[in-house]
Design brief:
Length: 698
């Protein structure tokens, strides 16, 4: 009884130790992940803006998919979806929570297939992977995909032994498909293993139909939606078009009918072209695959991750030479797991090689990460078990001590790594992530605020990009954002498209100027390092509306062929002309936009004045400013340029209802001398243009 009691006590202590180690792994993952959440302040990067926008569309308009991104991940974000920076922060925190759950799932999957030691090591490896940690701290569906892919992999293996796992396998495969479209690879590999296992009798195992039936039922809402909206239940932009492109830029054509498809690809490519594509894809994919599978590029020393993979390969080679009986026994115990995993990895690799010729990112390889680490972890645990048996079976004490010391060093290093990396990033627990994101996006918020004030209620068409500098998800639905297609590669083509589409605003930044330099290089320069765009000359018939940043803008806003609501003609000294103005009154605030036109080069930087006067010319309120708050001084104006400059006059409580005059002009800030009014309506003041009379109510 005493021996049995001691065994129970030891087993209980092992469970406590396992739970504590698992909590340490999860805690370290959360702390380091929170630091990455705080460092990720650009919501417009990559697919992040698209996922944020899709969750908003799902909540506001019931949009299930945009044709590229399936709905499961946006569905998880939709409860917190709002056009605010808090939504961006919450989305990152939710994704980090999914990452924690995925690490936990890796532990239970490893434990269920092999042992608790395997599960613990697999959780450690996954939580240490730099690419997985990065995506778990950003707004990408890849974190959720790793979890659903892992669940499908686990239950598809179990489905050959447990009937209830057939239902769960189909369900998780469906969830993986609703996250990203790689689930068919899982079902394909599972089907091949079923053929290998049952051979000719596979058709008699009708229970296998449970998996595809549950899979189809799980994804049926998406199939119905795709059929209604896109005309095909299994439509996906990635598999319908991207798979058959030669370069990513082909996705940005003006006419969707010009997008490549399987049929157009086969018409335009020979078998030699396809083989060359596979070779190019393999050359691109292999180094990315190696970097992705390395558990951590931040381990100390830095070569440790590479050494781990090389050691695993070397140990496997030694086993093939000296431990074939042990390997054979291992293979027989885990035949289904090994067959299924190897076939799945091969299919995934071939698919990725083909896709990599167009686009390759390490996040595309994340789905196989958890299964790979579980197999790698069990190989390492099996090696330790094999070495331990040999060491303790030996009559030599040094071998036993070598094994114990080596195992102790491995455990000590693992604990040090977990505690030290969490301690370094402990600062992340003291920072308010919501406030941090708001402060980091002040400049972007200024662009949105300006557009909302300038276009307070009407719909507006905006031409912008391709660029990642603005959070498009945060634009209200009435702002229709369209990027410049790649096939508009000359100014003549772009100008014709602008004349046809008539956008209200065109926003140019350095990314847009760089990517569409063939069409825009005569007018704009760009500085990638400073993230600024320079204006060589304003394109014909464009009006410069606003500058964000300094004279070299971060964002320059234009309006093509803009015409003022109140036109007039005035000439100031033969240098600057006024073509009209727009006026808006909100409460006791007047917002006026003056349309200036450069008639000739200005000798100096003039200051503009806007006066609100009594009928006799007595000034009641005024605003003096250099154009665009000094960001675009008149000495830089080129003949023919049109600028729309905004003025704001706040009316205090002393203003009485009645009729007032709006008066404007320009003067030298050094001498105070005004530019003379050569032509145009004269104001009661000298050398000033009368814009018009306005009536102010209560």
């Amino acid at each position: 009884m005493l021996v049995r009691s001691n065994l129970i006590e030891k087993k209980y202590l092992w469970k406590i130790a396992t739970a504590l180690l698992l909590l340490l792994i999860l805690g370290r993952f959360a702390v380091v992940g929170m630091a990455k959440v705080l460092n990720n302040t650009q919501s417009s990067d990559g697919d992040e803006s698209a996922y944020l926008a899709l969750a908003l569309d799902l909540r506001e308009a019931g949009v299930l998919t945009d044709g590229t991104r399936p709905p499961l991940y946006p569905l998880l974000l939709s409860p917190v979806a709002a056009r605010s920076w808090d939504y961006f922060t919450w989305a990152k925190i939710i994704t980090l929570g999914l990452g924690v759950l995925t690490v936990l799932a890796a532990f239970f999957a490893g434990k269920g297939l092999f042992s608790w030691k395997t599960g613990l090591l697999a959780a450690f490896l996954l939580a240490s992977n730099k690419e997985f940690h990065l995506r778990a701290s950003s707004i990408y569906a890849d974190t959720l995909l790793v979890m659903t892919f892992l669940g499908a992999w686990y239950f598809l293996i179990k489905s050959f032994a447990q009937r209830r796992s057939l239902y769960l396998a189909g369900f998780f495969a469906g969830l993986a498909y609703l996250t990203k479209g790689s689930a068919p690879l899982l079902l394909g590999a599972w089907g091949l293993v079923a053929l290998m296992r049952y051979k000719r009798k596979v058709l008699s195992h009708k229970e296998l139909l449970i998996v595809p039936i549950v899979f189809l039922l799980t994804i049926s809402p998406l199939l119905i939606y795709n059929f209604k909206v896109f005309g095909s239940p299994f439509y996906s932009f990635a598999t319908t078009h991207v798979m058959w492109m030669d370069r990513w830029a082909e996705s940005q054509v003006a006419d969707p009918a010009d997008l490549p498809t399987l049929s157009t690809y086969l018409q335009n490519h020979t078998p030699a072209d396809m083989l060359a594509r596979l070779q190019r894809g393999s050359a691109k994919l292999n180094p990315v695959l190696a970097r992705t599978l390395i558990p951590s590029r931040s381990w100390k020393p830095p070569w440790l991750g590479n050494a781990l993979l090389l050691s695993a390969a070397g140990i496997l080679g030694l086993f093939l030479l000296f431990g074939r009986h042990y390997l054979l026994a291992y293979y027989r115990r885990h035949r289904i797991t090994l067959h299924f995993s190897l076939i799945l990895f091969l299919l995934f690799y071939l698919f990725s090689v083909w896709y990599a010729a167009v686009l390759v990112e390490s996040r595309f390889l994340l789905p196989i990460l958890a299964p790979f680490y579980i197999l790698l972890a069990d190989a390492f645990v099996s090696l330790l078990r094999f070495a331990g048996r040999r060491a303790f079976a030996s009559q030599s004490a040094p071998w036993r001590w070598l094994y114990v010391v080596g195992l102790g060093l491995i455990l000590a290093w693992g604990l040090w790594y977990l505690i030290n990396s969490a301690w370094i990033e402990r600062w992340s627990l003291t920072v308010n992530p919501f406030e941090s994101d708001r402060n980091a996006n002040i400049e972007q918020e200024e662009v949105l605020t300006w557009l909302e004030h300038t276009q307070p209620s009407e719909e507006a068409n905006i031409l912008f990009g391709p660029s990642k500098s603005l959070p498009l998800w945060k634009f209200e639905r009435r702002f229709n954002i369209k990027r410049i297609p790649v096939d508009l590669d000359t100014w003549a083509k772009l100008n014709s498209a602008i004349d046809a589409d008539k956008p209200d605003y065109i926003i140019i930044d350095s990314d847009t100027a760089r990517r569409r330099r063939k069409a825009l290089s005569n007018f704009f320069s760009y500085d990638e390092d400073e993230d600024r765009v320079g204006v060589r000359q304003i394109p014909p018939n464009w009006t410069w509306r606003h500058i964000f940043g300094d004279a070299d803008c971060r964002w320059c806003v234009f309006s093509p062929a803009a015409s003022p609501a109140h036109p007039l003609a005035a000439d100031l000294g033969g240098v600057i002309e006024i073509s009209g103005y727009d006026l808006e009154q909100t409460g006791r605030t007047l917002r006026l936009t003056l349309y200036w036109r450069s008639a000739a080069p200005a000798a100096q930087d003039y200051t503009a004045f806007l006066h609100l006067t009594a009928p006799d010319g007595f000034v009641k309120a005024q605003q003096d400013q250099q154009p665009f708050d000094g960001k675009l001084p008149t000495s830089r104006w080129q003949a023919g340029n049109v600028m729309a400059d905004q003025f704001t006059i706040a009316l205090d409580d002393s203003f009485q209802p009645g009729e007032y005059l709006l008066v404007t002009g320009m003067y030298s800030p050094q001498s105070g001398e005004r530019l003379s009014v050569i032509d145009g309506p004269l104001a009661p003041q000298p050398d000033a243009v009368l814009l018009g009379a306005i009536t102010l109510d209560e």
